[in-house]
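Researcher: I'd like a candidate sequence for this fold, 105 residues long. If you have to choose between options at a position, lean toward the conservative one.
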């Protein structure tokens, strides 16, 4: 399976997927840390992928998503965005609604 197929499979395997540097417990960059924290604050259950452990995914995810930076948050198979967008959604209450909606689906 090529790397773009692996990314697609990962994105479709769970309602919420966060591609980040490090892990939620040990984030390796501030943006990843803040994004994971926002998800924690809305009690999101999600799959995280440490792009530092998989250079192939790190190199090809921006091509897959058309988004150049990390972290990258996907909800229901769609790219939501990175840290700034996730924090804006959190502050507006929208992130909580999106997470809640994944539980109903």
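Model: Candidate sequence:
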């Amino acid at each position: 399976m090529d790397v773009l197929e692996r990314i697609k499979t990962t994105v479709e395997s769970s309602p919420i997927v966060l591609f980040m540097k490090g892990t939620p417990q040990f984030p390796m960059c501030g943006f990843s840390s803040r994004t994971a924290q926002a998800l924690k604050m809305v009690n999101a259950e999600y799959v995280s992928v440490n792009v530092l452990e998989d250079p192939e995914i790190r190199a090809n995810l921006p091509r897959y998503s058309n988004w150049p930076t990390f972290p990258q948050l996907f909800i229901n198979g769609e790219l939501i965005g990175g840290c700034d967008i996730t924090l804006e959604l959190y502050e507006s209450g929208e992130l909580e609604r999106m997470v809640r909606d994944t539980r109903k689906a």
